[in-house]
Fold Cholesterol side-chain cleavage enzyme, mitochondrial.
Amino acid sequence: MGAVLAAVCHVLYGERLGLLQDFVDPEAQRFIDAVTLMFHTTSPMLYLPPALLRHLNAKMWRDHVWAWDAIFTQADKCIQNVYRDLRLQRKSTKEYMGILCSLIMQDKLPLDDIKASVTEMMAGGVDTTSMTLQWAMFELARSPGVQEQLRAEVLAAKREAAGDRVKMLKTIRLLKAAIKETLRLHPVAVTLQRYTTQEVILQDYRIPPKTLVQVGLYAMGRDAEVFPKPEKDGG
Ligand code: HEM
């Protein structure tokens, strides 16, 4: 997870981070733990009203708030470092600047919105990517033939793209399919939630407006009516 966090931070903040560079950095670990706790305490709150938990000052609520505070504090440190570098003009336009820097320079979004979005992206990038990678490795360990094909595809794509990342992303079809299959079998988001705005009629069901609807991604990915051999790769 440390490596994934470092990669996400590189994309968001660019090279000169001055923080989170060391994978065993206790601050990085604290951030990862906070994201994990935030996710763990979010799931029960889909069923138990957060307002009630807040009123009772339940441990789950306190943990949730602590987790978001820790996430924002850590993201804020990274953001401050980028501000400082920008002010001191330490960043050269030649090196990769990071999403945060380019959003500030474009000057189109209010700073608070930039900060909120960057914090969300920093939190969103950790568990999702590291869990998917772990499951992908688990599935690939069972199919060594696919491993070889993937390696060959990535090497060929690298050669052909010659540094053009967009071009490379367009050619790695097998890798994309492997990630999609991993997410079908082991979806990071087990369910998706939405509130309906208007009445929905689906065959035998009538869903009233303002109803919380959960889409069971895990169950759907393993439904034999949709995937003939749901337990198998490429099912
Ligand atoms: C395998 C990887 C990932 C999966 C399966 C995934 C899944 C999802 C899903 C299902 C949502 C929608 C949740 C909802 O609205 O109900 C979501 C939203 C979001 N994800 Fe991811 N995600 C992944 C990786 C990432 C990464 C790498 C980042 C950031 C670097 C990220 C940042 C976000 C953000 C910021 C949102 C909120 C978007 C919005 O509502 O405006 N996610 N993700």
